[in-house]
Amino acid sequence: MKAAVQKSGVLVPKRLLNGAKTVEIRCERGRVVILPLQPSHDPLRKLGRHPVRCGVRNGAADHDAYLYDTP
Questions:
Q1: Four-CA torsion 56, 61, 66, 70, nearest 10 degrees
Q2: 3-state class of 27 per DSSP?
Q3: Which residues pair with 26 in a beta bridge?
Q4: Could you read off the pLDDT of 4-54 as tens digits, one per residue?
Q5: What is the CB neighbour count within 10 angstroms for residue 51?
Q6: Are 67 and 56 in contact (CB under 8 A)?
Q7: Torsion angle of alpha carbons 38, 13, 24, 31, nearest 10°?
Q8: pLDDT at residue 56 in the model
Q9: Residue 12 near residue 34, CB atoms below 8 Å
Q10: Is residue 29 within 8 Å of residue 37, measured between CB atoms?
Q11: Is the pTM of this model over 0.70?
Q12: How many other CB atoms sit within 10 Å of the CB of residue 20?
């Protein structure tokens, strides 16, 4: 397959990615290599999916005050 290089790069057809949701792109010995990545099982990626109510009005904006007890 050949593809034209546009101003922003090259478009890779999705059918060539075998259903991958994320890929790693790297250059190896003068070649561009695209590797499909498996979904991460990192538990940190699940943070914030099911927030709990704890009476705090805006934990995101005031997180330092809640963590370090500073105004």
A1: -130
A2: strand
A3: 33
A4: 999 999 999 999 998 888 899 999 999 999 998 877 777 777 777 877 777
A5: 8
A6: no
A7: 140
A8: 67
A9: yes
A10: no
A11: no
A12: 15
